[in-house]
Structure formats: structure tokens, C-alpha cells
Write a structure and sequence with these properties.
Blueprint (H helix, E strand, L loop, with lengths): L5 H17 L11 E2 L7 E7 L9 E6 L5 E6 L11 E4 L2 E11 L5 E9 L4 E7 L10 E2 L12 E8 L6 E7 L8 E9 L2 E10 L8 E7 L4 E6 L3 E6 L10 E3 L8 E8 L5 E7 L4 E6 L5 E5 L9 E4 L11 E6 L3 E6 L9
């Protein structure tokens, strides 16, 4: 029998309590509606493409990290892999995003997908849903940085200006400086083809860990990114509005890494910023307009890197919209958005 002094006993109780709460066990689990088929290697980040003519045929894209045979896998709403829409043979694809109505020319607009190909120091661009390559093999990023290690891209997000309809790609990286950590590129299509032009460098970095997750609120015009062991940072997405940091918030609600970001948008610009609390295996929910903390929820995920959300109904299985999150078992979890009870404290 092991005897403990009174002070040691209380120390053990405190440690058990800390572990219990840091793992999200205090929160009831909200069961997933659908769990996808497994990918071969290491899931990371999802993006939802909405089929506007037939929402039940929407596609969820998810990255699967591997240096030689990484992939961006396409899933239907039942969680089944759509092989003919999936991309393979990629070099460590990390984060992914989609955008709608990019103008190829005066008469043609298409939906597009971009993702970071980390091991090749580049980003990729494909049309959706026909999955045609638009980048001639890739666009190199961070080329003006003298440190090769600083050129490995991680997070990525589209920003389409609601007024002038210009489309941008904002890219974060594995390592970088304390200032101007992110690069913003304009996506251009003209007689010379499709290319990216660097329009600005911006964004502070604490230097503590890394910056991976990036999300843009298209309608309100803000970009958020996770300075993983520090805070959620907020800037104007429009480069014409300057590079001043607008906020650095949320640190008190995370056990360590602040990770995946998603914005649930409702009428009158209301909604929620949903953020992965990675080491707590949970998500923190903030008000979209004020960025005030609302609640923490447990969706049954483990070590979530990336997530995405839509409030649009996607058929009978997801009548309230869809929340997608990566979990550390080579799978993605699909939740009907109504099950998250975001409006209830």
C-alpha cells in the first residue's frame, strides 16, 4: 500500500483534475453524423465545395500529408472517397480552400480549389468539380526569403473582395519572421494564362511555435490566423486597408495550440468563429462580430488540425448545414451544424 502525505495527496488530485479537464472530458461529446473513409497517411485540413445546383452532390476535400504520395481526397456527403475527383502523388499537401466564380475571361467563370504543397515550396490551383490543373505544376511562394526553410507553406485561404471581385490567396508558412509572416497574392487570369502576383506581406508572429490555420471572413473583410501558442490574430483582408493588427485574442481559452479556423455565417452578418483547441480535443466558439468567447464544445475529435463549415442546408443528412473537422485517425468527421447548438450557452 502506498501512503501519501496530505500535501502530496492534494497535489495528485490537482494533477488528475488538470489532465481530466485539458482533455475535454468535462464536455459531453456531440456525436458525428458521418465519419469518412480513412486516407492512407495523415489527414490535416478540409474544405467544403457546395454544389449550388444540387447541394446533396457537394464535395468535401481533405488533405492527406505524405512527402511522396500525399493527396487531396474528395468525399461525398456519406463520407465515401470519390476517386475520380481525388488528387494523388502530391508532396505533402497541407491546407486547402475553395472559392467560387473566378473569372477566367470575360465570358467564363469557374469554381477553384487551392492548397499548399509544402515539400515543394509552392501552392496549387485546380478547377472544381472537374479537377483540371490551372497552375502549370505549381506557383512558388515566399521566393524573396533568403532562408529556404522559411519557404515551406502551410496555411492557405482565398479572399474575394465583394466590391471589385478581385481574388487573392493568403499563405502562411511553417517558419518565418516576427513581422510579415504571411504573404498575400493576387490571382490573375489574362492572355498570358493564370499567375499569382505578390501584393503585400503582413502579420505578426510571436515566435513561439508556428502559424498554420488561416481563414477569411469574405463579407466582413477580415482575415484570422492562429499564432498557435499565443492568440488568434485579426487583420483587414483588403490590402488597401493597411497592415495594422486589429486584434490578438482568445489565448485564455486554449490549453496550448490554437489550430483550425472556420466561420459559420448567418443573416445580418451574425455568426460564429469556430477554432480548434487542439490539445483539449475540443473547439472554442467566438462571436463572429465581437470576437467574444461563447462556449467550448466536444465533437469527438482528437488533435484536430483543420476544420470548415457551411450554414447552407445540404440535403436530408445535413439540413442545418455542415461542420467538417479532421481527427487524428486518418478520417474526417461530419456534423450536422444544428447538432453543435451554437446559439445555446
Amino acid at each position: 500500500m502506498i501512503c501519501l502525505r496530505r500535501d502530496s495527496y492534494f497535489l495528485v488530485i490537482i494533477l488528475i483534475t488538470v489532465v481530466f479537464y485539458s482533455c475535454g472530458h468535462r464536455l459531453p461529446e456531440i456525436k458525428a453524423t458521418v465519419i469518412t473513409e480513412k486516407t492512407p497517411h495523415d489527414t490535416d485540413d478540409p474544405a467544403i465545395w457546395i454544389n449550388k445546383s444540387n447541394p446533396e452532390k457537394s464535395i468535401i476535400f481533405g488533405t492527406d500529408k505524405d512527402d511522396v504520395n500525399g493527396g487531396v481526397y474528395a468525399f461525398d456527403l456519406e463520407g465515401k472517397i470519390i476517386n475520380e475527383k481525388s488528387l494523388n502523388g502530391l508532396s505533402y499537401p497541407n491546407n486547402v480552400d475553395v472559392s467560387y466564380g473566378f473569372k477566367l475571361n470575360d465570358t467564363t467563370s469557374i469554381d477553384i480549389m487551392t492548397f499548399t504543397e509544402r515539400a515543394k515550396n509552392q501552392i496549387r490551383l485546380f478547377s472544381v468539380p472537374d479537377m483540371k490543373m490551372l497552375d502549370n505544376g505549381g506557383f512558388k511562394v515566399f521566393e524573396d526569403d533568403s532562408e529556404i526553410v522559411n519557404r515551406r507553406p502551410m496555411g492557405i485561404a482565398f479572399y474575394k473582395n465583394v466590391k471589385d471581385k478581385i481574388t487573392y490567396i493568403i499563405v502562411g508558412r511553417k517558419q518565418g519572421p516576427l513581422k510579415n509572416y504571411l504573404y498575400q497574392y493576387q490571382l490573375i487570369s489574362d492572355s498570358l494564362g493564370i499567375r499569382i502576383d505578390l501584393v503585400r506581406k503582413f502579420g505578426n508572429f510571436s515566435g513561439k511555435k508556428e502559424i498554420e490555420a488561416v481563414v477569411v471572413d469574405q463579407e466582413l473583410g477580415y482575415v484570422y490566423y492562429s499564432d498557435e501558442d499565443h492568440c488568434i490574430r485579426k487583420y483587414h483582408a483588403d490590402p488597401k486597408k493597411g497592415n495594422e493588427e486589429l486584434d490578438c485574442f482568445g489565448a485564455d481559452y486554449f490549453s496550448r495550440d490554437i489550430e483550425g479556423l472556420a466561420i459559420a455565417k448567418y443573416q445580418n452578418n451574425s455568426g460564429f468563429l469556430i477554432v480548434s483547441n487542439q490539445q483539449s480535443h475540443s473547439f472554442c466558439v467566438f462571436d463572429r462580430q465581437t470576437n467574444n468567447f461563447i462556449k467550448e464544445i466536444n465533437l469527438g475529435t482528437v488533435e484536430t488540425d483543420g476544420c470548415d463549415v457551411t450554414t447552407q442546408p445540404l440535403g436530408n443528412t445535413f439540413p442545418n448545414g455542415l461542420f467538417v473537422s479532421m481527427t487524428d485517425s486518418q478520417e474526417f468527421l461530419f456534423h450536422d451544424l444544428g447538432s453543435l447548438n451554437l446559439n445555446e450557452d
